[in-house]
Amino acid sequence: MLHFETLAVLAAGAGVAGFVDTLAGGGGxxxxxxxxxxxxxxxxxxxTNKLQGSFGTLSATATLLRKGQIFLSEIKAGFxxxxxxxxxxxxxxxxxxxxxxxxxxxxxxxGIALYFLFAPTxxxxxxxxxxxRRAYLRVVVPAIGFYDGFLGPGTGSFFALAGVALRGxxxxxxxAFAKVLNFGSNLGALxxxxxxxxxxxxxxxxxxxxxVLGAVLGSHAMIRGGARLIRPLIVAVCLVMLARYLWQxxxxxxxx
Length: 256
Known about the structure:
mainly alpha
C-alpha cells in the first residue's frame, strides 16, 4: 500500500538530488538510500532510480540546449556512446559481481576530489587536450557509461573530470556536456530495466516531479554560478560519497 508521506519524501529527496546532480553529479547518493528505505529489492531500486534520474538529466540537457550552453551538433556522438555503455553496464550487473570495484571506487572518488581541490586554474579555464576526440568518444565515454549502468555513484563527476583532464575543456562546458552524456548512459541502462519489468512506477513518478524541478533549477544555477559554484560542489559530493562508501563497507566504522 502506498502512503502519501512516502511519496512526498521521495519527491523532495529527488528534487535535492536533481539540483546537486546537475551541478556536481552524485545525486544517486541521495535517491538510492531513499529508495532502499522503502524496502524495495536492490534491482528494483536501481531500475526506479534510473527512471527518475533519466528525467532529471533530460531536463538539465533541455535547459542547457535552450540557453545555448550546448548544441545538438556537438552532443549526438557522445550521447550514442554513453547510451551504449549504459546499456551494456546494466546488462552486466545482472550477471557479474561488483567485488572488484571495492578498491577502485574509493580511489577514483578521492582522485576526483583532489583534482578539483588542488587544480582550480586548470579546471576553470581548460587546457591542452590530452586525448583525441575520436578516442575519447570510442573509449572513455562508453567506459564511464558502462560504469553508470553497472553501479553509478559519481558518474556525472567522472564525465566532467574526463572533459577537463582529457579534452582540456573549461569546467562549465565539461559539466554541461556531462549532463548529456549522463542522460545517455541513464537512458541506456533504463532501457534494459524497462524490458526486464523492474521499475516501480508509483515511486518513480513521484520522484520524477522533484527531479525535473531540481534539475532545471540546477541548470540555471550552473549558468549563473559557473565554475565558481561547480568546483566546490564536486569536491564536497565526491568526499561525501567516499565517506559513505567506506562506512557502508565497514572501513570507517572499524576506525571509530
